[in-house]
Each structure stands twice: as structure tokens, then as C-alpha cells.
Design brief:
The structure is a single chain. The chain is an alpha/beta fold. It folds into 2 domains: 224 residues, 3-Layer(aba) Sandwich (Rossmann fold); 136 residues, no CATH class. It is 47% helix and 10% strand. It is built from 17 helices and 7 strands. A 7-stranded mixed beta sheet has the order 4-3-2-1-5-6-7, sandwiched between helices. β2, α8 and β3 form a beta-alpha-beta unit. The chain is elongated and about 85 Å long. The N terminus is likely disordered.
Length: 432
């Protein structure tokens, strides 16, 4: 089928990188030049940028990038280029089970209903790590886009003017400055870019992916703002901790105790690990929710079109429901059994009724299911949407039908039944 350009059928997993997919993405750089990583980070933590450079504040990310530049200028990372960083990416250590988990996750969704509907998973990385190294890693072939920190190889303006050659003559490709910076405060905006399609990153330009189709996985407190953003807009969040690292576990556990994330797990992606099962299950729930939603909408459209056609098969003007032809198909989709419509609408219907009845709901659930079965199939998609919306709004309104006490009488169910009948008649269009 043709590609679904609405992006409603795309599920995005946005990943951190360090302490999420890799224990340390910069280690190959230290190894190549024989630099002790402990010395590098100890020096960095001891550098007082404010007093030495006259800066009011320098972010932690900016500091480590500047320290790499200082090592390069001093010859300890002699001749460091973006090309070399990309090559070193292939040496980045990955957590157990990677990159195989990406293959297994993809295979999970290669089943007829999901493939035929165009539902697929895309992966994006948002990291304070180095873009070139991540793009050179074994993870890169499975990723649709990377946002990370980048170095600029272009000579500075002063360098160009002090050069004896032409102004833009090809220069030494050694890194000379920070070209792009990712910080903890940048991550929420990039997640919004994924949702709105405003980003410059690869497929993002083709359209946004709704937040309720986004899962964010990261492993540090620096992702707190990003977790909050995804939670706020209806996405899912999962935090990972480094295996056998008690301090990291405690940090991540705090996120869960504070309701900042939906789940936590060890950064192990081997087949059958709790983390892979949680992520796979979450993505599966999103995928089948997309399918159920679109199946219901399409089915309701087909049903309404059939009712809106007169005896000689000519559609009655002005009463057709939304098109029942899916994007990328050449004809109407096959009609879906009414049971599918009922399954897709029972949950919001039941939730609204529960708000009316409180604990009495269980006593009358069978009666409500019978009413739902006898009435829902006769509503087209527009009618049904209006019915469910008004029912939900009425159930949560501060006045009107209030939640009843648990007193065992039939006053609540009788009043709700009358209300449902009136609401049904209000939204049903007489097409006879």
C-alpha cells in the first residue's frame, strides 16, 4: 500500500544514548589517543570556567565539549576531526542485547494487520553525546534521526583573516569549535519537534508523530524535563539504569516514586529481559490502539454510507459520512463486523457510565452492555463521536448527573437510562 503520510500510523521511540543504549560513548576517543578517562573527567570537574574565562555560566555539556577542544588544541587529541569521530563510533560499547533488540522489535510488528495498515516503529536519539560518534555506531542503521552535539571544523573568522591564502580556502579539518549543542533543557523542544514535524531531522520533515504515539526511554536525571513533557502530552516514559550500579538504580527509582516515569528497568536488551518486554508491550498497545481506532472510524463510515444510500443505490446528498476509502487504497475498505465497533466504543462508554454510577456500575454492567449493543451499531461515525463526547462531558460536569452513593437502589440506573435514550435520540440522524 502507499505510504501513510499522515504519520498517525507511526510509533516513535525517542532514546537517550549514554546510560541508555551505551555505558560510555566517549571511551573510544580516550582509548585511541591513550588518554585516561578518569583524568579527563577529574580535570573537567575541577576547571573553574567562570574565573578562568570570565564566563558567568557554562553548562556541563558545553564544558565537556570545550575540554575536548582544549585537548585537541594542546595536541593530546592531535588532529581530531569529525571523520575520525565517526570512525570511532563503531567502537562504542553497547548494552547487552543491542543492536539485536531493534531487529526483534521490528519483527514483532511484521504481522498482516499492522503491516497492511502501515503501522511501523521509528527510532530517534536525543543525546548530549557526539552526533558523529553515534552516527558511526552499530545502532545507527536502525535509527531514523539523531540529535546530538557537534563540532565545527570551519576556521574561525580570525583564523581566516590571519591566513595567507584565500578567505575560504580548504582548511585543516581539525575540530575548532562547538557547532551544535544539546542540553537537558533542549530535549523537550526536540520531542515537540518530533510531534509537530517541525524538526530538520530526516523523516521528521514529512510530518509530525502524535505524542500519544511516542515512547521516551532515557537513563538520567538530566532527562527529567523531557520525561515531564512526554507525560504531559500523553506519551509513555521508561527509565533505565546501569546493571549492577546501585547509585544509578536509586536515582532512576526516584523518578518512578515521583511518578515521573511509567516504568523502570535495567539497561539490558537481551531477549526476554524485563526492559525489552515492557518496551515491546508498550509499543504493541500503541500499535493495536491505532489499528482499533482506524478500524472503528472506517467501519462507521462504511455503515453510514450504506444507510445513506437509497433503494436504487444512489447516495442521498448531504448525508454521507466521512470517506471510507483509506489513504493509499483504490477502493472502499471491507466492512468490519459490528462487534469491532462495539469493542472500540465500549471502554469510553463504560468509563462515562461508571462516573455516573460509581460503585453501582458493576451491578448494572450487563444491562448497560445490552443497551450499548442495541444502539451503537445504528450510529454513524459523526453521530457516535458527538454522542460519546457529550456523554463524557456530562459525566464529568460539576452539576447535573452526579456520581451516586453506593446505596443499593435503582434510582441512578433509571435516571442514567433515561439520559442515554434522550442523548441517543438527540444525536441520531433519521435517514429513513
Amino acid at each position: 500500500m502507499a505510504e501513510n503520510l499522515s504519520r498517525e500510523c507511526v510509533i516513535a521511540i525517542a532514546w537517550g544514548f549514554d546510560q541508555t543504549l551505551s555505558p560510555d560513548s566517549v571511551q573510544p576517543l580516550f582509548t585511541r589517543f591513550g588518554v585516561d578517562a578518569k583524568d579527563f573527567w577529574t580535570e573537567l570537574c575541577g576547571v573553574d570556567f567562570e574565573s578562568r574565562q570570565g564566563l558567568r555560566s557554562v553548562s556541563q555539556t558545553q564544558s565537556y565539549l570545550n575540554h575536548i577542544l582544549a585537548y585537541t588544541k594542546a595536541g593530546r587529541f592531535n588532529g581530531l576531526t569529525n571523520r575520525l569521530l565517526h570512525e570511532l563510533g563503531s567502537e562504542i560499547p553497547l548494552y547487552d542485547g543491542l543492536p539485536g533488540f531493534f531487529e526483534r522489535l521490528k519483527a514483532t510488528f511484521e504481522v498482516a494487520p499492522l503491516v497492511n495498515h502501515g503501522i511501523r516503529v521509528e527510532h530517534y536519539i536525543i543525546s548530549v553525546g557526539l552526533t558523529q560518534m553515534i552516527q558511526g555506531s552499530r545502532i545507527a542503521p536502525y535509527v531514523n534521526g539523531v540529535w546530538g552535539c557537534e563540532f565545527d571544523e570551519s576556521p574561525t573568522k580570525a583564523d581566516r583573516h590571519n591566513s595567507a591564502g584565500p578567505l575560504f580556502e580548504a582548511a585543516d579539518p581539525t575540530i575548532r569549535g562547538v557547532g551544535h549543542l544539546i542540553e537537558s533543557t533542549t530535549k523537550p523542544r526536540l520531542l515537540v519537534d518530533i510531534s509537530t514535524g517541525a524538526g530538520k531531522c530526516n523523516d521528521i520533515a514529512r510530518g509530525g508523530i502524535p505524542f500519544h504515539n511516542i515512547l521516551y526511554v532515557a537513563g538520567s536525571q538530566s532527562s527529567l524535563d523531557a520525561f515531564n513533557t512526554v507525560n504531559q502530552y500523553g506519551g509513555r516514559t521508561f527509565a533505565v539504569y546501569e546493571p549492577s550500579n546501585a547509585a544509578h538504580f536509586q536515582s532512576v527509582q526516584q523518578l518512578q516514586l515521583q511518578n515521573r516515569v511509567h516504568g523502570i528497568g535495567e539497561a539490558s536488551y537481551r531477549d526476554g529481559s524485563p526492559t525489552t518486554m515492557w518496551i515491546t508491550n508498550a509499543v504493541s498497545e500503541i500499535a493495536w490502539r491505532i489499528l482499533d481506532k482506524d478500524t472503528f472510524t472506517t467501519s462507521a463510515g462504511v455503515s453510514a454510507q450504506a444507510r445513506a444510500t437509497d433503494k436504487v443505490g444512489v447516495p442521498t446528498p448531504g448525508v454521507l459520512a466521512s470517506s471510507c476509502v483509506r489513504p493509499g487504497t483504490r477502493g472502499p475498505a471491507p466492512e468490519i463486523p459490528t462487534a469491532t465497533i462495539e469493542d472500540a466504543t465500549w471502554q469510553p462508554f463504560a468509563a462515562a457510565c461508571r462516573s455516573f454510577l460509581g460503585r453501582e456500575f458493576e451491578r448494572h454492567e450487563a444491562r448497560l452492555k445490552e443497551w450499548h449493543h442495541n444502539h451503537i451499531g445504528s450510529l454513524c461515525d459523526a453521530e457516535l463521536s458527538g454522542f460519546i463526547t457529550e456523554l463524557e462531558n456530562s459525566a464529568t460536569a460539576p452539576s447535573g448527573h452526579q456520581r451516586r452513593s453506593s446505596r443499593p437502589d435503582n434510582s441512578s440506573i433509571e435516571k442514567l437510562s433515561t439520559f442515554l435514550e434522550n442523548l441517543y435520540q438527540k444525536h441520531k440522524i433519521d435517514l429513513e
